[in-house]
Design goal:
Structural class: mainly alpha
Number of strands: 0
Strand content: under 5%
Largest sheet: none
Order of helices and strands: HHHHHHHHHH
Radius of gyration: 19 Å
Helix content: over 70%
Shape: globular
Distance between the termini: 41 Å
């Protein structure tokens, strides 16, 4: 594999996983805070924790059916594009982000609410205050979500198609090189994937420690 193509695949992997993590955070943060503050019962939490173990191929199959030409969202033309991969990876990362934040915020929810009210604050000020107090759990959730997004292969293959110069990412490239018998190339790609994952996750965890 040419160095230029390796850089292209690596950058695409980072971009797709990064956007997926941001999307998962945009949805997972409100969900995690809502569950921590409202405590709506066991069922939502059970569903949330169950989502942490979603098989990536099932997520990919579901999105494939939605985005295919015969599917309800087929007119959007997202199938076999990086955007479809972003959606798939976001679905996998969202339960992780929400669960980590929920677990970190639940224990402090009433304490933060009492503090805000004692200082003359309003109920609307409780969620942002609780989010700030739970920033370490949020950082851990984002790190976990990013790791799940960049390392998955099943959904990326189904909705992305592993198209060269368009949707090929590190995980799908590893599968391709292995099938071709190019084990040295597959190992090199695996090393790059491991290095990128460790670097980004370590950065997020460092920010967590400094928070």
């Amino acid at each position: 594999m040419e160095p230029g193509e390796l850089w292209e695949i690596t950058l695409r992997s980072l971009l797709v996983a990064g956007l997926a993590t941001l999307l998962a955070g945009a949805l997972g943060v409100p969900l995690g805070l809502f569950l921590a503050l409202k405590a709506p019962g066991r069922l939502p939490r059970i569903l949330l924790y169950t989502g942490m173990g979603l098989p990536s191929v099932v997520v990919g199959l579901f999105l494939y059916l939605l985005l295919s030409r015969q599917g309800p969202l087929g007119s959007l033309g997202l199938l076999y594009t990086p955007w479809a991969m972003v959606l798939a990876q976001a679905v996998l990362a969202l339960p992780l982000v929400a669960s980590f934040l929920y677990a970190g915020a639940r224990a402090r929810a009433e304490e933060v609410r009492t503090l805000v009210k004692s200082l003359g604050g309003r109920e609307a000020q409780v969620p942002p205050t609780l989010l700030w107090e739970s920033r370490r759990a949020l950082a851990a959730g984002l790190a976990s979500g990013f790791g799940a997004a960049i390392s998955e292969v099943g959904a990326a293959t189904l909705v992305g198609g592993d198209i060269r110069h368009q949707t090929r990412v590190l995980t799908t490239a590893i599968v391709l090189e292995t099938r071709k018998g190019e084990l040295e190339a597959a190992l090199a790609l695996g090393g790059v994937l491991l290095g990128v994952s460790l670097l980004v996750v370590a950065l997020l965890l460092i920010l967590e420690e400094d928070a």
